[in-house]
Amino acid sequence: MSNLRLSKNSHSSTRSAPPKNRRLVTLNINRRGQSIAAASMSATSAKNEFGRALETALRGQPVVITKHEDPKAVLLSIEDFEALSQAQSPKFKLDALTAEFDALLDRMQTRAAAEAMEDAFAASPEELGRAARRAARRRVGSH
């Protein structure tokens, strides 16, 4: 959670209403920028309205606790905490990378890809040279 970022978000739709007189913020909790809406409240309000903050978290909306408007803590449901903890595990990361590799490999195993590889291996040196020049021109033209 070292890459936790907060941003104000007054238009966000949420699953539950934030604690009274509190603003909504967006939590960006991963490197891909996936965001979730979160209620925000001061530490004093969290202490005085803990029941409301807990209910908000239990409904699936994290509560950001601030001190002098600086985020200091996040109140989460146990399900959200377990999901975040699992997402940080090396096994989860390896499983995600394996799935991404398998999907890429599946896309490469199409009939069109196999035919293109057969054509490339059957091509003469001159044909390969022309294809390389065309690819280089396309690459230069796209920048």
Mean pLDDT across every amino acid position: 79
Strand coverage percent: 15-25%
Number of domains: 2
How far do the termini sit from each other?
A: 36 Å
Share of residues in helices: 40-55%
User: Helices and strands: which structural class?
Assistant: alpha+beta
What ranges have pLDDT less than 50 throughout 5 or more consecutive residues?
1-19
Strand tally? 5
- From N to C, what is the helix and strand string? EEEHHEEHHHH
- Described by the principal axes of the CA atoms, the overall outline is elongated
How would you describe this protein?
With 143 residues, the chain is of the alpha+beta class. It contains 6 helices and 5 strands. The chain starts with a strand and ends with a helix. The chain folds into 2 domains: 5-76, no CATH class; 90-141, no CATH class. It is elongated, with a radius of gyration of 25 Å. Strand 2 (23-28) and strand 3 form a beta hairpin.
